[in-house]
Write a structure and sequence with these properties.
By secondary structure, the protein is mainly alpha-helical. It contains 6 helices and no strands. It is globular, with a radius of gyration of 21 Å. The termini are far apart.
Length: 181
């Protein structure tokens, strides 16, 4: 007999039901995205703040809710690899595919100073994440024990812990405050 791992689960719905659901979902997503862009522009103009501030706050949070929800569920289920992969993969997809396809459809104008500032913030967050993943304290101990400098780059048993999370959240709030000044 086959083990439970080799058994193929039967889908809950047929393919012919899933295709219209997918098409309806994509149409709803396109309609919702249009409403989000219009709503964000209206909020920005009514509050007297730039569209950039609204885009890195309300729009960013709204578009990141699926990743946020999936990450919370994966952490609660102790499937943390999904959390890191989900967040990194989502950001790479947004930069590569979303920005790529959008700029193919319509060239995107940008202010180089804004781009440089935001890129530096992204690099800073990437370095902060790397530090969290590398588990610096353990790696320094490992380097002293083995005498190998390469131990500093060991990513085994790294942890993105509460201190990292609090630091990242505080930095995000600081970033938003700086945008509003």
């Amino acid at each position: 007999g086959e083990s439970e791992e080799n058994e193929i689960e039967k889908p809950e719905r047929s393919l012919w039901l899933n295709i219209p659901l997918l098409i309806a979902s994509l149409a709803g997503l396109a309609f919702g995205s249009d409403l989000m862009v219009d709503g964000a522009s209206t909020i920005a103009s009514s509050l007297g703040v730039s569209e950039r501030v609204i885009s890195v706050t309300i729009v960013a949070v709204g578009t990141s809710l699926p990743e946020f929800t999936a990450s919370i569920i994966s952490v609660l289920k102790k499937e943390v690899g999904i959390t890191i992969g989900n967040l990194i993969g989502s950001n790479i997809f947004n930069i590569g595919a979303v920005l790529g396809i959008s700029s193919i459809i319509q060239p995107i104008q940008f202010d180089f100073n804004v781009f440089l500032t935001d890129t530096l913030w992204m690099i800073g967050y990437s370095i902060l994440l790397l530090i969290g993943l590398l588990n610096v304290t353990r790696n320094f101990r490992l380097m002293r024990e083995t005498g190998k400098v390469s131990a500093l780059w060991s990513a085994q048993e790294g942890e993105v812990g509460r201190i990292w999370g609090a630091t990242a959240l505080i930095l995000y709030i600081g970033y938003i405050v700086l945008l509003l000044l």
